[in-house]
Amino acid sequence: MNIALTNLAILISTALMLCLAMSLSWLYFGRQRYALIWAVAAGGGALHWTLNAAARASDNNADWVMIVSGILVVIDATLVAVGSRERTGLPLRLPLFVSLAAIAIAGVLMMVLIYDNIGLRGFITNSYCAIMMVVAGGAVFPRHRVVSVPEILVFVVLLIFALLCMALAMLSLGAGRSGSGAGADVFRAVLVVGLPSAYSALGIAIMFLLATDLNEQMKALITRDPLTGVLNRRGFAHQANAAIANARRRQQPIALVMTNIDGFKSLNARRGYPFGDRVLAGFADLICTNVREEDVVGRTDGNVFSLVLIDSDADQAQDVVERVRRDLALLSIDGEADLGLSASFGIASDLSDDITMGSLGKRADDALQGARVARAHHAIAA
């Protein structure tokens, strides 16, 4: 049995399964671009390993085989890094990645066509792959939420993969110009033992990450308002109850603010529902801009938004209200300013041991109704 061909078969099958799974994930579950980017990278990996297997089976080490193989490694590694940045919403910086890939490919062409140096060609491709795996690992962690277990797993596997690629890069130099130098046997041993394991581990980790992302998307469909992107009534109730329970446990103050846009029904009648929807979305955006990441924001009725302000008393809640009030007066929709928008606010805060969402919500709602009766642009604290 040819061990090298067996390992190549494992790599090919793993890459094909990854390509298929991520393609299906992209096709049927929200068309996330990072899933498509990673699917293309896995497809390129399958092509790369197939080319290597065919060359080994036919004992054909022609220059074009080494060139195409090297180019595929560079492109695939680049796509892994780009996909990782796409997933977490980081700037893609495509010109930079294209430039780096072009430099690496130029190096491969020079080593094969001009210098005929297989060792340096391997050093370039493996070093580049190591760098891209580090870049991908650094981009896995989200910037605005707690890191998940699958993200930690992918980071660790990417780091291991990068270390393996760096080891292969160093060993490529020992293989010499012809690829059959004193270090060639060690290089092949590390390649045969390490690469299939690392590649398979990376595939499993990425599939685990995809499954977790899909689960989060399903949760978002259940708990998020599709128009504004904030929590819906169900999602808000769940997170608000958790926040209040935490405030009781830590003996921290907590405030609930309820607000709605004054005269929203007449606005809809005058300008139409599409315009009203854009006003709601803009109102939600400016509310989110004026609260902290740990605060809870939800659309709990047609044009009613509720805010749970963590570790905040009535005065701090009033400060948030004033900022929202100020920004609402300046809100521009479709480039149209001076819309004359105003809102009413009801504020309830508490630091008691028996505080509940029900009691706090009742007080905030009563305060909101009082503000509405008092006419536009009022805030009343209960």
Can you characterise this structure?
The chain is an alpha+beta fold. The chain has two domains: 221 residues, Rhopdopsin 7-helix transmembrane proteins (Up-down Bundle); 149 residues, Alpha-Beta Plaits (2-Layer Sandwich). The model has no long low-confidence stretch (mean pLDDT 89).
How would you spell out the order of helices and strands? HHHHHHHHEHHEEHEHE
If strands are numbered along the chain, what order do they take across the biggest sheet? 2-3-1-4-5
**How many structural domains can be distinguished in the coordinates?**
2
Oligomeric organization of the protein chains: single chain
The portion of residues assigned to helices is: 55-70%
Short description:
It catalyses: 2 GTP = 3',3'-c-di-GMP + 2 diphosphate. By secondary structure, this protein is α+β, with helices and mostly antiparallel strands. Helices cover 69% and strands 8% of the residues.
SSE topology:
Elements: H1 3-28, H2 33-57, H3 63-87, H4 94-114, H5 118-140, H6 149-175, H7 184-223, H8 233-250, E1 254-261, H9 264-271, H10 273-289, E2 296-299, E3 304-310, H11 314-329, E4 343-350, H12 357-373, E5 379-381
Parallel strand pairs: 4-5
Antiparallel strand pairs: 1-3, 1-4, 2-3
Domain GGDEF: 252-382
Enzyme class: transferase
Keywords: Membrane, Transmembrane, Transmembrane helix
